[in-house]
Amino acid sequence: MPPVTTDATRERIIDAAEECFRRFGVAKTTVEDIAAAARLSRATVYRSITGGRDELILAVVVRDLHRFLDRLAARLRRERSVPEAIVEGALDAIEYVRGEPTIAHFLVPEAAGHMQAAVAGAAEHVLDLCCEYVRPYFAQAQRQRMLRADIEVEGTVEFLFRIITSLIVMDRDRDAEAQRRFLRTYVVPVIAAP
After folding, report:
1. What does the pLDDT look like over 70-90, one tens digit per residue?
2. Rg (CA), the chain
3. DSSP assignment of 21-32, as one string?
């Protein structure tokens, strides 16, 4: 049997971490649990993931974020209306995070400390990743005068990221139509051209 490559080992560990986070929760998952699920030694896990638990938590979140952003990019390619892209994209993000067990586990109170430690130093990385995916669509919309000319694309993406995060964390128990009304009334006018 050929030796396992470093990339393959890393992916195996991230898969195991995701499985353990789903099964035990973030706060209760240990590196030993992850090593056992990956069928690797603790030493191999520590050699492959030098940032330890925090790096594993972030790796799981970033991988899930890539999955969502791929889906969002496909939606943005189809969407012709900037207001609807904002509203439906935000609703997709909220629904995805709330319904995705891997990410939802990070939003429960028991995991808050762990998530904060893992993501605090990498918040710029996560925001940059979101910008990388969404920037081309917003830049094109601005060139077509569908986005306000007096706002920066980077700032717009950050603003939406912050709004979506807030709506995920502070659930006001609105149904989808109430969320749409909220986004159309308060968020769309800040971004879309009149």
Report:
1. 888 888 778 778 899 899 999
2. 19
3. HHHH-TTT--HH
